[in-house]
Amino acid sequence: MSDLDSLSRGELLSVIVALQERVAALEEEVRQLRAHLSGGGNTPAASAPSWVKANRTERQKKERKKRERPAFRRREEPTEEQPHVPEVCPDCGRMLSGGWEVRRRQVIEIPRTPVRIVDHVVYGRHCGVCGKDVVAPLDLSGEVVGQHRVGVELMSLIALWREVGRLPIRTIQRLLQVQYGLSLSVGELVEILHTVAEQGSDAYAAIKASVRQSEFVHGDETGWREDGENGYLWSFSSASERYFTYAHSRGGDVAKEVLGDAEASQEGAPPGSVPLCAFRGVLLSDFYAGYSWYPGEHQRCWVHLLGDLHELKEKHPAEPSVEAWATAVRGVYDEAKRWVTEHPDAAVAVRRGQRFWYQTQVEALGQPYAGVQGVAQRVLAERLIRFAPELFTFVEYAGVPSENNAAERALRPSVIARKISGGTRSPKGSATRSVLRSLFGTWQLQGRDLLDTCRQMLVGTLVPNAP
């Protein structure tokens, strides 16, 4: 107010005029806003003040993505029905009859049942005619394995918890006690797992044979500890099988043994002939040299290569040439993937020509930097030139992936189990783990019922490769 007191009459009149104009502008803005709201959102958006948010009906409607499945909760197949029927009228007390179904509410529960323990009592009787003692036959081959006291259903459940659930032995012990009131020692649980693996030795060998007959196989390995010593768990996966084996070595001899040693297959072959391998398909792997012995077609993993290219760009953000070079290499790969997608029915000769074309492109990208000291691209450029013949095998062979992700997925449960348990404590434990992981991993890929399939294997009725 002190500032207004010092103004002259003319200056005060100017302030009043400015305020009147401001009030008039605000009244007009309020009038437009009321007109916009009273019109139910049908007035053009331009008539509303600029700061007013448009109604939903005026916004550009985006087409909602359709759900693959309904949003409502899926109902399970009921095993029993429990009716709830009103008997009398709550107002007058009259007895009610008839009726109709109003609604349903489903409750899913697991019964807490005690363990079932059966004593099979064998009796003998004496024949008074011939004087022979007759003992009742006892055949439990469909219920237990050997002299075990644990049935095949429980054996299958324990193996499932161990391999698929990745539960420690003592956790399995506690679950059996809490859920079924059954007390089994740690030693007996371990022996059960060994027995399941021994019974699955034939199925394990069949998986190995199937892997060798596959069109392509993913190979990879990860660290694994046995009794505190470092070793490696090797994985070889096809579209429908997963085979695991443990070895102390990370050398290529392990892959040779699984896929079929080329030198062993040469026994009796003519001198100077090209060594062959029991596996004749495409081998997918990363750039580890332990797989380079393979004499057949090879596809190196592009995901590993693209990850190294991305890491190279992050290490040299101030060098535009590095980013441009990495982008060019990625561009060749993207173009090859696009061509494969757009030409699914191309002839073999055409596919082979396209493969050679992309191979020459990456070789050309690697040539300027290979062997040049002091450039950031040197290591990856030399890798491009060395492995160029094995980078675009997926272009020539339809259905072959360009990456080795299947091997990574196969090994991920083992990596998690290693973090939980730290590994195995004996060679027998490592062998058991390899067999069980192969069996359950293969059955999962094939979409089998894991419990039922394991039970079939234990009683000798398993049909290989059955859906």
Polypeptide structure, described:
There is one protein chain. The protein has 467 residues and is of the alpha/beta class. Among the domains are: 143-268 and 420-467, no CATH class; 302-396. Helices cover 45% and strands 8% of the residues. It has 15 helices and 7 strands. The chain has helices at residues 2-5, 9-38, 152-163, 169-180, 186-199, 201-212, 252-259, 302-315, 320-342, 348-366, 378-387, 393-396, 405-421, 427-445, 450-459, and strands at 124-126, 133-135, 216-226, 229-237, 242-247, 282-285, 298-300. Strands 5-4-3-6-7 form a 5-stranded mixed sheet, with helices on both faces. A two-stranded antiparallel sheet has the order 1-2. Helix 3 (152-163) crosses helix 15 and helix 8 (302-315) packs antiparallel against helix 9. The longest helix has 30 residues, at 9-38. The mean pLDDT is 87.
Largest sheet: 5 strands, mixed
Mean pLDDT: 87
Low-confidence stretches: none
Label the overall shape. flat
Class computed from helices, strands and strand pairing:
alpha/beta
Q: How large, in whole angstroms, is the Cα Rg?
A: 37 Å
Question: Strand order across the biggest sheet?
Answer: 5-4-3-6-7
Estimate percent helicity.
40-55%
Strand content: 5-15%
Q: Classify the oligomer.
A: single chain
Through-space gap between termini: 91 Å
List how many beta strands DSSP finds: 7
Number of alpha- plus pi-helical segments: 15
Secondary-structure element order, N to C? HHEEHHHHEEEHEEHHHHHHHH
